[in-house]
Amino acid sequence: MSTLVLVADSDPFNLRLLSELCGTLGYDVMTAADGGAVLDAMARQRPSLVVMDAFLPVMDGLQVLRILKADAGLCGVPVLLVTAEEDTQSRERGLALGANNYVCKPYRPLEIQQRMLDVLSHSAPEFAFEPDERTERMVSDPLTKTGTTNQLHIALDYEFTRAVRYKHALSCVLIRCLNYAELVQRLGIDAPELVIAPLANAIRGAVRNVDHLFRSEAGEFTVLLPETSIDGARIVVERLRLLLREPGLYATGDQPVIAVSAASYPKEAVSDGEALIAVARRALL
Fold first, then answer.
1. Where does 22-129 show beta strands of DSSP type E?
2. Terminus of the chain with fewer CB atoms < 10 Å: N or C?
3. Does the domain formed by 149-284 have CATH 3.30.750.24?
4. Considering only CA atoms, which of 173, 189, 165 is closest in space to residue 239?
5. 39 contact partners, CB below 8 Å, separation of at least 6
6. Is CATH 3.40.50.720 the classification given to domain 4-138?
7. Which of 256, 189, 187, 190 is nearest to 221 (CA)?
8. What is the DSSP letter of 107?
9. pTM above threshold 0.85
10. 4-8 sheet: strands from edge to edge
11. Can you give the residue ranges of every domain in the chain?
């Protein structure tokens, strides 16, 4: 039986993001824009998982959650509650009412997919499943546990649209091992473990929790920096350049040659996230 996820958010843009993330995992999707629509949808077809904003119109997510957990036929359906980053009160209330876990806005694609997998794998027997290797590879890069290329494209669209809508800055930083092909020839199958894994760990330690880190190519990483101007991105670039030159970082005698670049909207007059990354990529050359 296929996995059916009901996603509920009053913002059509957020609904599209959640639907895309479910679709990349091979899940079927139902959508609802308010609390009443959640209950109507579940009366027609019981989903495997509900991903629901705590603040829905008509009937908020916490009210819906209370009704679901009081219904003998629906109380076993796992619920992933969505709250604002700073809204600890709603998260605590939701968990007390029976939500299985929570995820925060602004959305982070890697986090959402990981939480969905975690909730489904620890649910009641009729919903629980063990994710296969293919699904796990869709959620994160197996070696570095960073986001995948597919998630990068989804996150780019989401963050760029947010930047335009709310008049925020958005920056991206690219980190590339320029001699990765040569290192692969010399080191063979050990090259990813000796070069890419420590590179990913170093980058992760140099950025914020709210930033998005992806392995965008075999020897390249992309970091999205929400609400960050080019000045902030340049600070990250300089921090990375210093950090990635530290002796002993890589477990190989062959020193990787690392290039780091950045681009920022609205400084760059680009129309979408892909164009923003293209500007940063050209700066690497």
1. 28-32, 49-53, 79-84, 101-105
2. N
3. no
4. 173
5. 59, 64, 67
6. no
7. 256
8. P
9. yes
10. 28-32, 4-8, 49-53, 79-84, 101-105
11. 4-138, 149-284
